[in-house]
Inverse folding.
């Protein structure tokens, strides 16, 4: 039996705090590869790792932050959410301290205050994900 | 770039009610294919369908029930949870009315009272999933 399913990815809504536990905002990255624009940090799950392991690895690779997973936020799976192919994204809420640094697939990584999220620059369905987050 | 990720599946914890809204139990199926044993109804997500669509389709195929999704329950992704290959399972809590009928990959489908779940017969990590459910 040949099994064919969508790809599985993880994305992180990283709440960033300073050393005094003040909430500073969430992290968005500027993508190095198409589709170009801003996005939540994330990436594909490797065979042999759990989604939680993938999330922590991808957040470190793209933002240099060591995140702590707070909880599963939701799963996004509309077939057209990724213009390249069908990708199911498992989205986690997580927290971290310090300043992100864009690395790997991220040209830049910055903290955005919730009032300043540039929705028009977000790729995939990350605008919807963040609106769901703001409404949650 | 060749992308390789785990397979994506959905599984349903179906709470069954009678016509008077009395809770009767949850549905387990007897698997027709290896690994043999009891399991939550579920199956692989097809390319081109959302995980919610896959859940409703698989519940109908395996139990003949028309389920209503209540909420996302959790995601299970340990690499060794499926003895055949790495499968990420997205588990939904749902509800349905009536008597299940085992079809397709299910030799049988029955309603089990929560006090009578035969944990020793459950395959994959479905025993853990149901313990998490009972503790939730």
């Amino acid at each position: 039996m040949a099994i064919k399913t969508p790809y599985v990815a993880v994305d992180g809504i990283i709440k960033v705090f300073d050393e005094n536990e003040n909430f500073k905002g969430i992290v968005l990255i500027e993508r190095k590869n198409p589709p170009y624009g801003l996005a939540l940090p994330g990436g594909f799950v490797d065979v042999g790792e759990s989604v939680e392991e993938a999330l922590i690895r991808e957040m470190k690779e793209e933002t240099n932050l060591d995140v702590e997973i707070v909880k599963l936020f939701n799963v996004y799976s509309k077939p057209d959410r990724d213009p390249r192919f069908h990708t199911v994204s498992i989205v986690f809420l997580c927290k971290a301290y310090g300043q992100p640094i864009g690395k790997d697939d991220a040209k830049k990584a910055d903290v955005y205050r919730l009032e300043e999220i540039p929705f028009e620059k977000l790729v995939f369905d990350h605008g919807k994900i963040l609106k769901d987050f703001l409404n949650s």
